[in-house]
Design a protein that fits this description.
The protein is α+β, with helices and mostly antiparallel strands. It has helices spanning about 45-50, 65-75, 95-105, 115-120, 130-140, 160-185; strands at about 10, 25, 30-35, 35-40, 60, 80-85, 90-95, 125, 145-150, 155-160. It has one domain: Roll (CBS-domain). The strands form four sheets. Strands 2-3-4 form a three-stranded antiparallel beta sheet, with no helix packed on it. A hairpin with a 2-residue loop joins strand 2 (about 25) and strand 3.
């Protein structure tokens, strides 16, 4: 991938800038994301955010497991989503929202419903070089709360909207502190 391109990958589509219309474009040294010009700056990358997380585990489940087991695992780990893997291949995601809308509201039983019956099969994922800002834009535009992070074809992490908000708040706090020190003359 060329520097400056913002890649969006889907588990069910090719990750190729020539065939994927959701790729960003670099125009005149400034990146354009869906027509919004942005200048490069030092936002945290997903690698930095993942390394700062206290728990590096990515919780997964098989499509043949019961929804009950998925919900039980999410509750035990205090998380809102699981990556659905078949072998090492991402085949979907299951979230608390999937459970609420596709099991509870339809009065289905979680003890007899398989994960594959309610999981989302169109999964967007990103490389670890993406910035928090790029991921926030993706999540906002596509109404997502979780993005798997893939490096060299391997699942290396899962980023939530909460992880990104925490990182952005931290970056803004740092910038505010620096500006306050500059304004009052304390540069040391």
């Amino acid at each position: 991938m060329r520097p400056g391109l913002c890649a969006v990958h889907r588990a069910d589509a090719p990750a190729d800038p020539r065939t994927d219309s959701t790729f960003g474009r670099t125009i005149g040294g400034r990146q354009r994301w869906r027509g919004v010009p942005r200048t490069p700056h030092t936002m945290s990358t997903l690698t930095q955010i993942l390394n700062a997380k206290p728990d590096h585990a990515v919780h997964t489940i098989a499509p043949t497991d019961l929804v009950f087991d998925a919900v039980k695992l999410m509750a035990a780990k205090n998380i809102g989503a699981l990556v659905v893997l078949e072998g090492e291949q991402i085949v979907g995601m299951i979230t608390e929202r999937d459970y609420a809308r596709k099991v509870v509201l339809l009065t289905r039983s979680s003890t007899t419903t398989l994960v594959r019956e309610i999981m989302s099969t169109s999964v967007m994922y990103v490389p670890p070089t993406h910035t928090s800002e790029e991921c926030m834009a993706l999540m906002t535009e596509h109404r997502l709360r979780h993005l798997p992070v893939i490096d060299r074809g391997k699942l290396v992490g899962l980023i939530s909207i909460g992880d990104l908000v925490k990182d952005i708040i931290s970056e803004q706090r740092f910038l505010i502190d620096q500006l306050e020190h500059y304004i009052i003359g304390d540069r040391g």
